[in-house]
Amino acid sequence: xDVKTVCLGMLTDGEASGYDxxxxxxxxxxxxxxxxYGSIYPALNxxxxxxxVECRHVPQEGKPDRKVxxxxxxxxxxxxxxxxxxxxxxxVRSEFLATMCFAxxxxxxxxxxxLDNRVKEMxxxxxxxxxxxxxxxxxxxxxxxxxxxxxxxxxxxxxxxVEENRDKLFDKTGTxxxxxxx
Amino acid sequence: xDVKTVCLGMLTDGEASGYDxxxxxxxxxxxxxxxxYGSIYPALNxxxxxxxVECRHVPQEGKPDRKVxxxxxxxxxxxxxxxxxxxxxxxVRSEFLATMCFAxxxxxxxxxxxLDNRVKEMxxxxxxxxxxxxxxxxxxxxxxxxxxxxxxxxxxxxxxxVEENRDKLFDKTGTxxxxxxx
DNA sequence: CGCAACATGTAAGCGGTTACATGATTAC
DNA sequence: GTAATCATGTAACCGCTTACATGTTGCG
Lengths: 182, 182
What we know:
The structure is a homodimer of 182-residue chains.
Chain A: H1 3-11, H2 18-26, H3 37-49, E1 53-58, E2 66-71, H4 73-82, E3 90-94, H5 95-101, H6 108-134, H7 142-165
Antiparallel strand pairs in A: 1-2
Chain A binds a DNA duplex (28 and 28 nucleotides) through helix 3.
């Protein structure tokens, strides 16, 4: 499933522009599916070319025209076909964990900075999720609630794990093995 | 941090061939950093070209020669520089969660199949992790233990979340909204 | 005065995946 | 016999990231 298919899915919720979709990628989808303008606009153009969406130009005063996209019947069929995949992937790519694998090559200060930054990022996500709950969550479909809850649970667990296990990363000398022993 | 840097890190633990590194990517790194031969072999060639590793040819009987790589001083410097990044990324790309966002467009059977397959994958990972604990974990550096524990905690939490919240994905009719209502 | 928000796009590049190519040995 | 393990690589492709390009309105 690529950016095109996710855009198609977002459009089942109502018409939207590329700019609107980008905001959705940045908010409710940010913790599991990133996409920038560089993938969204070409995706929408390709979908329009293939008859999956229809495009309506909406002129605006003082601002550039909006191009508002609507999903077509063919688009819905394509989306439903994509949703038939029984084994959708769930991939993690973590420079953080790769870095921690080599913690014994780092100083204590370096390790602590990395861990603090990670905890901060997860705290920021949890804050974002709390804002969804207190504002726009009421009309969400069950799937979106499930996914929000999933993100919250993961972020909390990650933060807890890092906080409770960070001590295990430091050797007894407390200086990291950059300090020669022999 | 790319495949090249991770290979360099793995080589701090001792010399290895591309084939050996692939096995490490498939085992202890599999839950957070994927890499196939198509990235590993070119990475090792580039590292050798840049003086980060040295290559030794080891002839074998009946099998192709092994190319065994050793990290150089320049390689170690390069790795330590890479480890100085205070904000290493931790990215999730999940077709699974994207799919679940649109669960209201799927039948109950489809959703259940997807969830079952996800639970199975996490159970397989937990089995793999348990095998590490009972076999080769003794001589692991603290960072590797931290990362293994991280993976275990995440997988357990994910599995639990899916099992405890799967009911929320089904609407009252129990047929999915592919069945027209009006 | 500068920055953020609004709004759309292109082009180069990068990094990784997939498929292909080869070939002996060992275990079932 | 047929699949898996050992062992290394290339080339085409794909999809995403990054940087660039343009221009107005409104806020502090």
